Amino acid sequence: MSGRIDVHSHLIPGIDDGCANLEQSITCARVLVDAGFTHAFCTPHVWTNLPENTPASIVRRTAELQAHFDAAGVALQVLPGGELNLGPEIANMRAPDVVSYAMGGKFCLFDLWADELPDFFEAAVRHLQSLGLKLVLAHPERMKAAQDDPGAVERMQELGLLLQGNLQCFIDPEDWATRRTAVKFLLDRRYTFLATDTHRPDSLPQRMHGLRRAIELAGHEEVTRLTVENPRMLLDAAGSNGQGSD
Ligand SMILES: [Fe+2]
């Protein structure tokens, strides 16, 4: 049995804009454990300007982080993953080069930075799907296209995307579109996952506050579905290729 499973975090130190050093990683992991997380997928940014963040290096860095957590007595199991930034170059990617949950080749987390869905969006999504991947879209509530157009999220779901909301958005200022959109998606049961998107210790209190707010809004049962039950499908993908276990 697992507790909460964080499907989006930047805990590996020094490889993106997440934790800057091991001390920060351990501090963040302890906060996650206190909030009921037993597992976290390490999903560093995979950007064209971060060429060292490859599936092989992330697997190695995750194992190193696990050894440090074990030595420090931090009861958090970490698994490799990545947050693939969607760009036109995706159309040329081969399956072994794509980061996926537990590098199992079944589920892939991606994000997109654009006010409007770019021309390459659907082609890139379909290419990744043709590699056998089920796609998880990170924090759609931060995408202007999803905020402004109620039909946009329906089209994303028709494309087969699973939506992952960021906990922090539930405590953004009340008049922010991110909060309005996140609350609507939560109450409309659009999300498959809620995650912390942990970067560094300084923003963790807000992320944990967001978890409590999500429970106030949708109830324990729904938040358990989004942080425990649904993420287990990603752990199952991990177990099937030997990259991790429950
Ligand atoms: Fe992220």
The distinct bound ligands, ions and cofactors come out as:
fe (ii) ion
The helix/strand class is alpha/beta
CATH architecture level-2 label: Alpha-Beta Barrel
User: Helical stretch count?
Assistant: 9
What number is the mean pLDDT?
A: 94
The CATH topology assignment is: TIM Barrel
Q: State the separation between the terminal residues, measured CA to CA.
A: 7 Å
The best one-word shape is: globular
The amount of helix comes to 40-55%
The overall strand count is 9
In short:
With 246 residues, this protein is α/β, with parallel strands linked by helices. It is built from nine helices and nine strands. 41% of the residues lie in helices and 15% in strands.
Structure description:
It is a single chain. This protein has about 250 residues and is α/β, with parallel strands linked by helices. The chain has a single domain, classed as Metal-dependent hydrolases (TIM Barrel), CATH 3.20.20.140. The chain has helices spanning about 20-35, 55-70, 120-130, 145-150, 150-160, 175-185, 205-220, 220-230, 230-240; strands at about 5, 35-40, 45, 75-80, 85, 105-110, 135-140, 160-165, 190-195. The strands form two sheets. A six-stranded parallel β-sheet has the order 3-5-6-7-8-9. A three-stranded parallel β-sheet has the order 1-2-4. Strand 8 (about 160-165), helix 6 and strand 9 (about 190-195) form a beta-alpha-beta unit. Helix 1 (about 20-35) crosses helix 2 and helix 7 (about 205-220) crosses helix 8. The radius of gyration is 17 Å and the shape is globular. The N and C termini lie close together (about 5 Å). The model is unreliable at about 240-245 (pLDDT under 50).
